[in-house]
C-alpha cells in the first residue's frame, strides 16, 4: 500500500514535466533527483522494518530468559553443610626435628695391642658389663708377675725392719725407707692390674651393637673405632621453636610426631628445655622422649612434630572447603530460612582440614560445605547435614 501511494505521487509529479517540451532539460534533471529520493525512501523503510523485527526478537528472548531464571531461583539447590558445635581445640604449631638415640657411643680400646677375641655378633643386643673384645695382655701379665715377686720380697723386708725397730735395732727413718719401697711396688702392681683390666672391653650400657670394623689378630690403637653401640628404647626427639613461643614451653608437655615412611603417629614427652635462646637462629631447643618398643624409630630420622601451645575449650571449627577468600578477608555461606546468606568471618589457626573461627559465626549456625563457589546471596537451598542426622529446609 505504501509503495502504490508513493508511485502515484511520483507519477503525478513527473508526467507534467515530460509533457512540456520547453522544459525538457529541466525535466530530465528533476527526474534524476526524484529517482534518488525514491531510493532513499525505500532504504529508510527497509531499515525501519529490520529494526522493528530485531527489537521484537530481543524482547522475546529477555522474557524467555527471565522466565527461566525465575524458575531456577525458585527451585532449591541440594548442598551439604554442617551445624557448628563448640569443641575443644588445641592450638598447635608444626615444626621439624630429628630422632636420636637414647644413648650412643663408639667402642674404642683404651690400650694398644693385638685383638685375641671378639665376643659379640654384629647387630646383636648386648647387656651392660658384657665383654665385647679381648686385647692381648701377655706382656702386662709378665710385668705383673715380676712386680709381685718384688712386692713379696719388699713385704718381708718391711716385716724384719719393723721387728728391729721395736727392738731399737734400727732407726725409725730406716724403717720408713723400707716401708716406702713396699708401698711403691704395691702401687706399680695396681697400675699393671688396671692396665690388664682395660684389655677387656665391656659394654657401658644395654643396647644394640652395630657393624664391627676390626678382626681377630688386628693391632688396635685408641683411635680405632671397633663398633658403635646404641640404645634406641626410648628415643630422643630434638627440635627448636621460635623465641616468641619460649614462654609456652613446659616440661612434661606431650607432643605428637610422624616420620617419613610410616603413617603411624607417635607421642613423646618433653623432658628438657635449653635454658637460653640461640643468638644466631633466635630459637630455643627442646628434647623429648618417645617409647620405641618395636624399634621402628631409628636415630637420624627426620621428624614432623605437632607441638601444642594453648587449648580452647569452646572453639568453633569449620572445614577449609567451606571458606571463600575475598578481597577483605574470608566469607562462608550459612542458611537462614532456607536461603543462602553470606557471612564475613575472621579465622586464625588451622589444622589439615579445619579453620578456627574468631568471629562472624555462632554455635548452631548451618555452614554450607559444597557448592559454595557458585552460590549466590538469597539462593534457595536444601541442606544435607553431614555432622548430624537432620535436614534443614
Q: What do these coordinates show?
A:
The chain is of the alpha+beta class and 393 residues long. It has four domains: 71 residues; 114 residues, no CATH class; 83 residues, Elongation Factor Tu (Ef-tu), domain 3 (Beta Barrel), CATH 2.40.30.170; 77 residues, conserved putative lor/sdh protein from methanococcus maripaludis s2 fold (Beta Barrel), CATH 2.40.420. The protein has four helices and 21 strands. The strands form four sheets. A six-stranded antiparallel β-barrel has the order 2-9-12-11-10-13. α1 runs antiparallel to α2 and α3 packs antiparallel against α4.
Q: Estimate what percentage of residues fall within beta strands.
A: 35-45%
Low-pLDDT ranges: 13-24, 67-73
Please state the CA-atom Rg, rounded to the nearest Å: 51 Å
Largest sheet: 6 strands, antiparallel, barrel
How many domains, as an integer? 4
**Percent range for helical residues?**
25-40%
What topology, given as strand order, has the largest sheet? Answer: 2-9-12-11-10-13
- The overall average pLDDT, rounded, is 84
Helical region count? 4
SSE order in H/E notation?
Answer: HHEEEEEHHEEEEEEEEEEEEEEEE
CA distance, first residue to last residue: 63 Å
General form: rod-shaped
- Structural classification: alpha+beta
The beta-strand count equals 21
Amino acid at each position: 500500500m505504501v509503495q502504490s501511494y508513493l508511485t502515484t505521487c511520483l507519477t503525478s509529479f513527473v508526467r507534467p514535466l515530460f509533457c512540456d517540451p520547453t522544459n525538457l532539460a529541466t525535466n530530465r534533471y528533476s527526474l534524476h533527483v526524484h529517482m534518488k529520493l525514491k531510493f532513499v525512501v525505500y532504504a529508510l523503510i527497509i531499515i525501519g522494518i529490520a529494526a522493528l523485527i530485531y527489537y521484537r526478537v530481543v524482547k522475546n528472548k529477555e522474557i524467555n530468559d527471565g522466565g527461566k531464571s525465575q524458575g531456577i531461583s525458585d527451585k532449591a539447590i541440594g548442598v551439604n553443610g554442617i551445624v557448628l558445635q563448640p569443641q575443644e581445640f588445641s592450638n598447635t604449631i608444626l615444626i621439624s626435628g630429628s630422632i636420636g638415640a637414647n644413648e650412643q657411643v663408639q667402642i674404642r680400646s683404651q690400650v694398644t695391642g693385638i685383638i685375641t677375641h671378639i665376643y659379640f655378633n654384629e647387630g646383636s643386643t648386648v647387656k651392660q658389663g658384657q665383654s665385647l673384645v679381648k686385647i692381648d695382655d701377655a706382656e702386662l701379665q709378665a710385668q705383673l708377675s715380676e712386680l709381685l715377686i718384688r712386692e713379696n720380697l719388699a713385704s718381708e723386708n718391711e716385716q724384719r725392719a719393723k721387728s728391729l725397730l721395736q727392738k731399737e735395732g734400727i732407726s725409725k727413718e730406716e724403717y720408713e725407707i723400707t716401708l716406702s719401697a713396699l708401698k711403691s711396688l704395691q702401687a706399680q702392681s695396681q697400675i699393671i692390674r688396671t692396665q690388664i683390666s682395660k684389655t677387656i672391653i665391656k659394654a657401658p650400657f644395654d643396647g644394640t651393637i652395630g657393624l664391627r670394623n676390626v678382626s681377630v689378630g688386628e693391632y688396635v690403637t685408641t683411635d680405632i673405632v671397633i663398633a658403635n653401640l646404641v640404645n634406641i628404647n626410648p628415643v630422643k626427639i630434638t627440635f627448636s621453636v621460635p623465641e616468641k613461643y619460649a614462654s609456652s614451653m613446659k616440661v612434661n608437655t606431650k607432643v605428637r610426631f610422624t616420620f617419613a615412611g610410616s603413617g603411624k603417629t607417635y607421642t613423646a614427652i618433653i623432658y628438657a628445655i635449653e635454658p637460653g635462646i640461640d643468638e644466631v637462629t633466635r630459637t630455643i631447643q627442646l628434647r623429648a622422649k618417645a617409647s620405641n618398643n618395636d624399634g621402628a624409630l631409628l636415630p637420624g630420622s627426620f621428624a614432623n612434630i605437632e607441638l601444642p601451645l594453648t587449648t580452647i575449650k569452646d572453639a568453633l571449627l569449620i572445614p577449609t572447603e567451606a571458606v571463600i577468600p575475598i578481597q577483605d578477608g574470608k566469607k562462608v555461606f550459612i542458611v537462614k530460612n532456607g536461603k543462602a546468606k553470606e557471612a564475613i568471618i575472621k579465622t586464625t589457626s588451622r589444622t589439615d582440614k579445619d579453620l578456627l573461627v574468631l568471629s562472624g559465626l555462632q554455635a548452631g549456625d548451618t555452614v554450607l560445605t559444597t557448592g559454595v563457589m557458585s552460590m549466590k546471596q538469597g539462593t534457595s537451598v536444601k541442606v544435607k547435614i553431614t555432622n548430624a542426622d537432620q535436614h534443614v529446609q
